[in-house]
Fold this sequence. Notes:
Layout: H1 3-42, H2 52-67, H3 73-88, H4 91-94, H5 97-102, E1 108-111, E2 114-117, H6 123-129, H7 135-147
Antiparallel strand pairs: 1-2
Amino acid sequence: MNELSSKIIELIENARFSIAKNTNSTIVVTYFTIGKMIVEGLQAGEKRAEYGKGLLTKVSIDLMNKFKRGYSVQNLERMRNFYSIYSNSSKHLRNSEIIKNSSNILRIFDINEELIHLLPISWSHYLFLMKIENEYERQFYEIESYLNQ
Length: 149
């Protein structure tokens, strides 16, 4: 293989990686925002609402009719849980020296209604991380996921 071909191959591979990374970030931010809309809209900011499950089913049906897959009630619940965990958890961690020195880039948070996001790990990583109840342990694995990509 000649040098020009090698350079073009490298360029294309870098472009593909960049597209995948940007796509992942967009998906994660979209799911976070959907979760926020569910919590704030359907549940009026409460963790649970009596009517929430019925409305979530209705929303799921509407989304599935439009997009065909990916928006089951279970997936919408995961998005709600994602927002609940990452919007409220680790506030003390975010302000700690550990976070300031190592993993601010791994946090999702709202500042003045503007979503700030730098999300270098995938949705599947977040699905795994959401199962971890201990915030420090979740933070550790979040950092490890990011560093070992």
